[in-house]
Amino acid sequence: MLIIFMVSTNVLLWTFSQNALYTQAVKDENQKFADKLNENVIASNGTYSVDEDEVTVEATLSNAGSVAAQIINLWVFDTSIQRYNYTSLNLNLNPGNVTNLTGENAIMVAIDDADSTHDFVSWFVTARGNTVAIEEMQTQGEQVIVAEVAQGIGYLGMDFDEFRYFKYASNFDLADWPDGSGSYSVPAADLIVFRMKLTNYDPSGNKRTLSLNSHSLVWVYFPTVGKQVYWYVVNVNASGTVQSTYSDISIGYKETVYVYFASSSDGTFNGLGDKQKTGTVGPAAVNLLLLGNIDSDLYGQNIPFVSVYSS
Amino acid sequence: MLVRRILRIIFDKRAMSNVISATILTGVVIALSLSMFSWAQGRTSVYNNEYRETVDAETAKLKEKLVFEHVFYGNPSCNISVYLLNCGTIDDVEIKSVYIIKGSSWLEAFSTPTLYFLNGTQIPDQDLDVGEEGYFVLSLSSTLSSGYYNTKIVTVRGATFDTNFVA
User: Are the C-beta atoms of residues A5 and A22 closer than 8 Å to each other?
Assistant: First the structure.
């Protein structure tokens, strides 16, 4: 009896200990599952632009959940050519955090033969295994842009927040490169270059590429004195040097580019003789006169909304 | 007198047989008890080991978690590429078999597909450790008709994971 009792007790205790181990494992997994369910990352305001084979994805990530989240991957799928790629990330979001992946923080993914006219979908992957699809900036954003900017005025939209001017550091080099200064108040006595950030929102549905020719310019008009000054479009290289001859700037559908206006001559820039300044104190209207081609058709657009104070 | 008494005690067969029989009986009982104890101990040890192995296996299976980052059908048209992330809490997740299912019927089954890292190099140990990502490519014997399909993965530990894709 004693032996039977001992053996039974042994077995029973062993069973209990093993059950406890299994129960602990189940509890741990349940906790992980609950954390996974509570993870709630939202990716919104997604935009895609393509430069050669590099797809640039801009989006806003916000952690609306109750647990911290780590983003480990971004997948981009070009639905037009059925190709895809990914890039590894290491973004950590505490509850309530919002991260803007725009500008220099935008994410680039290489996809062979990608084009700005293509359609893209993309999604983030978290370390817990959730996938977060990027909602494209279409619903509200594009309706506003298409209705009030593109269809109402033309194909190109201008980003008011990115309107900048630069002084010169030397004969051809820009100072304060690459950020420049806010343009709504400009120095009257300094030779300056204007920069606009333009996006092609071709509303026709044909996703056409637009090119700006050398006749495009910024025209500044001082109504109080009746004076006008203009800056023709120029090319500026990656290190902030104005190029002496202009070659057309191409803007793909939904592609955003910086366009610089510096020269008093159409198509050329020869340094000091072509530099411009406002030369007048007072308020001025700034008109952006854009000319070129959209596919094989001629294109012209005037964006008149900016005003500056020259002091 | 004394000598006689001592001799009688020594050579008294009745007393001897009682002691011997009691000793033998006790010895047999002890021997039987020990053998029974050792047998029972052996049996419970076997049972305990089996039970521990079962619990360990079930616990390991429970800790396995594979998620599908991406499933792509096409390019070439008979291939399915499946991208996985081990977001569980146990290393060495090996894939034993993969099934392509439409509705309730199996279309094709694949055994131990070759795993690659996302950069395209082959995974040396052919398993996914915690946090590791990898993919495998299934070459179907024929193209899939357009529709809704299910991919089911069975690991060596017996866990199953599945997801859907559209062909």
Answer: no
In this structure, the answer to whether residues B10 and B77 fall within a common structural domain is: no
Q: Nearest Cβ partner of A18 from B51, B74, B118?
A: B51
Domains of chain A listed by start with CATH number: 41-136 (2.60.40.10), 149-310 (2.60.40.1470)
Angle subtended at Cα B67 by Cα B65 and Cα B68, rounded to the nearest 5 degrees: 155
Q: Pick the residue from chain B with its C-alpha nearest to A24.
A: B59
Cβ contacts below 8 Å, chain A against chain B, sum to 68
**Chain A residues inside the 8 Å CB shell of B47:** 11
Residue A149 has pLDDT above 80, yes or no: no
Q: By three-state DSSP, how is residue A282 classified?
A: strand
Tell me the mean pLDDT in the region A219-227.
Answer: 91
- The answer to whether the predicted template modeling score (pTM) of the entire model surpasses 0.80 is no
Q: What pLDDT was estimated at residue B16?
A: 67
> Cβ separation of A22 and B133 shorter than 8 Å?
no
Same domain, B109 and B41: no
Q: b/e per residue, B78-116, with b = 16+ CB within 10 A?
A: eebbbbbbbbbebbbbebeebbbbeeeeeeeebeebebb
| B59/A75 Cβ within 8 A | no
Q: Is the same domain home to B51 and B91? A: no
Domain that holds residue B86: 64-166
pLDDT band of A153, cuts 50, 70, 90:
low
Q: State the Cα–Cα distance between residues A165 and A194, nearest whole angstrom.
A: 4
**Chain A contact for B90 (CB, 8 A cutoff):** no
What would the pLDDT profile of A75-119 be if each residue is shown by its tens digit?
999 998 989 999 999 999 999 999 999 888 899 999 999 888 888
In this structure, are B86 and B143 located in the same domain?
A: yes
